[in-house]
Amino acid sequence: MNATRLDEEFTSSVHIYEPHRNGLPRLRPYFKALWQRKPFATEMSRASIRADNVNTFFGQIWQVLNPLFLACVYFLLVMIIRGRGNSFDANVERFVHLCAGLFVYHIFFAGCVRQGASSVVGGGKLLLNMSFPRLLLPLAEVRTAFVKFLPTLVVFFVILLGFGRPLHWEVIIAPAFFLMLGMFAAGMAMIFATMQVYFRDIGSFLPYMVRIWLYMSPILWYPDDPINTLNDAGIPEWVLHANPLYSMVGGWSELLVQGHIPEASWWIAASSWSVVALVTGALFFMSREREFAVRL
Amino acid sequence: MTDTDTDTTTSDPAVRVENLSVMYRTTFEKVPTFKSALRRVGRGKREVHEVKALTDVSFEVDHGTSIGIIGSNGAGKSSLMRAIAGILPPSEGRIEVHGRVSTLLALGVGFNRKLSGRENVILGGLAAGMTHAELNERYDEIAEFAELGEFIDMPMRTYSSGMYSRLAFSVAVHLNPDILLIDEALSTGDAKFKQKAARKMREVADNAGTMFLVSHSMRSIKRLCSQCLWLHKGQVMMQGEPEEVIAAYSKFLEVGEDAFTLDDM
Ligand SMILES: Nc1ncnc2c1ncn2[C@@H]1O[C@H](COP(=O)(O)OP(=O)(O)OP(=O)(O)O)[C@@H](O)[C@H]1O
Ligand SMILES: [Mg+2]
């Protein structure tokens, strides 16, 4: 690691580099350095957001229009597949539910995974010429995705209130589900970032995976929809939780749209998935990160 | 990332390299892909190509020494710098570094071409572990030294390669490192900037800083370095006085010294 005055309080300025086996770095100094260089991740994410919408006014408009178009397209899709014949209210509810799920999935979660996956490979020169905890790269992308997600949250509430849907007090619990989703997304970003170093074409598989995962999550359908079918077939309900996003995205939408607090099993599923993903992702990434420089 | 705390005693050299070997692992394909991995599994083959950039390199550099590293293309000079900076893990051997390291490796030191020079300076500094306060304090100095004028706020893709290296050099010397690693950063600078950079490097050297200078210009090595290390195909051929090492190197190349006096730095 580049030793600079910041690190000195904690580590002495002596560094010893020895052959590495795919082992983990020593965790305490690693996380200390990670914490100290948090401003780097923040600045990295800020700079990339700035570079993305150079044309600020239309850049901002686009941030709002893009998810709206997306929601309309998917709503149309759902309407065509299901056929019409629902009441106006039911359609509105479906549209609002779709917006809640789609924005958090497509803008935040998919953004984390897609950008996070290319963060290391795209870091090229930075990785070859600087030494810092590489975990900062996918984490910076998580922050970027979060900042891009915020305006869509405003759009969502405008839609919710504009269609005359009530604002439930349970909305204040929703951030808990968002946090779990964020941890899960960070873990996924780390895993895919590592994998992309070894397999550069992961990037071209990701869009399909993102699309399929979208269909498998309760966004275009309600979390309750499959339960009857499952019961008829004699399959226990918990298989739904095999998809981590079932509880996370489902819980988020239930709280925002219905004001319905998810049952305990959802909390357990979501929190265990998020912790497992984050820990696995971080350990996998860290055990490989010293090899990144020789592999790029 | 394997910083081990040990007591610094004054007798320790700035950098001690023991039996260092560094290996790159690449695949024969231009880029490793999942598809090709599957195909390879199908054929039951592993096509990992190992490039040994350094083999059994040992040397010591004392505090306050400026050491020049010479050698032909592909000799492993840049790889050695990266290993000392802790970027490339050794595959064998051990490196001990006593002091803060600042790296100036090749061109475009970790720079993102979409961002402006200013943003890159800030990012580079933060990645090296500086705080915002320290950077603000030193930013003007860095910008002034690089002499880029209004280009400092333009995206770096609009820079010429000389402008790149000016900024890179400026950042590296202003990080106030104990050990400065410079890899061919000046090859594209103009005559005026080279002079200025040479003065700055002298200053670093005079302030008892330790400096590694990788260069293909024998003249600048002679002017700036008190020691010289000659690498060939990943192995140390010779270490010693610049004059002697350079003479041996030139003889080895069977080219008269005159060939090198043309490129001043
Ligand atoms: N990223 C990489 N992947 C695989 N092999 C590499 C990589 N970088 C360098 N090498 C190999 O390592 C060896 C040493 O390269 P290095 O860049 O250290 O040489 P150098 O002395 O800096 O050369 P130059 O004078 O051209 O800068 C070369 O054989 C090169 O092919
Ligand atoms: Mg080189």
UniProtKB/TrEMBL annotation, chain A:
The chain crosses the membrane at residues 64-83, 95-114, 135-160, 172-193, 264-286. GO terms for cellular component: plasma membrane. Its main location: membrane. Coiled coil: none annotated. It is found in: Cell inner membrane. Keywords: Membrane, Transmembrane, Transmembrane helix, Transport. It is a multi-pass membrane protein. PANTHER family: INNER MEMBRANE TRANSPORT PERMEASE, TRANSPORT PERMEASE PROTEIN. This is ABC transporter permease.
